[in-house]
Amino acid sequence: MQKSKCSKCGAKAVIFRDYEGVALCRGHFLRSIEKRVKKVVRKHGMIEPGDRIGVALSGGKDSAVALHLMNMIVGNRPDVSIIAISINEGIRGSRDLALKKSVELCKKLDIEQHTFSYKEEFGKSLDEKVKEMGLGKDDVCGLCGVSRRWILNKKARELKVTKLCFGMNLDDEAESIMMNYVRGDIPRACRLGPVTKYSTKRKGGDMFIPRIKPLRWIPEKEVGLYARLAGLPFRPKECKYRGGLRVDVEKALLDLEKKHVGLMFTVVNTFDRMLPGIKKTLDSKETAIKKCKICGEPGSHEVCKACELWR
Ligand SMILES: [Zn+2]
Ligand SMILES: [Zn+2]
User: What mean pLDDT is predicted for residues 36-53?
Assistant: First the structure.
């Protein structure tokens, strides 16, 4: 196997995909990613006529690639529009720079961007909250995720977005699936999948915006390579608060993938085959979605997680 020359045209290869046994040059690599994402979008019906897609844009590589590709796919459709939604968590340093990159990308692609902050929504920045509560790295990541999703869902609804698009890649998704196994969190597992309409379909769940993940079958490494080769502005550094169970699961999965090529694809695809069955068992047991007593947002408790944390 020639790993240094493109299997399709013989030009200098930029990547060797061991899970497929092919080497690809820059051009063939970019096209293969675009083709795979287009296929995923079509197969899972991620875009429907009349959609207003809200891409959650952090300034990192994943959401940059998601926005760029969604724009490429629906750019010319008069019946579908795209906006970007960014959140300023109030993390000094890396996240400020990431936000700048997101502004740059939206300008480059001529996409309308809406930015919201923890400070405005919750009264404090994440840095202030962490200091005040004396939180460790392992707690912060989870708290931040809950808060970000709360803002994204609420603002998406206010902006009349019909689908929230996330840049989760294959590694992210395999991690989330394994985390739910490890924690035994089956209801949360139902919110995973290429298109997440589970919560929106349950009684009282009409306030949830359906979510789509077009990069779900692209390995993390390839999303990064695509972002670089396509010349997209993004901030490569990870968030300083990244931590907790996710990081341990990530390490374990990367170790396994090294020894067993294609394992992440198997984790995700096997989960997808089990998902309809899991949903069926839960449907009979689960109660309706509740409206939070404090903020009115949908959730599974009387008071939602975001209000529990911030109010
Ligand atoms: Zn080639
Ligand atoms: Zn609430």
Answer: 96
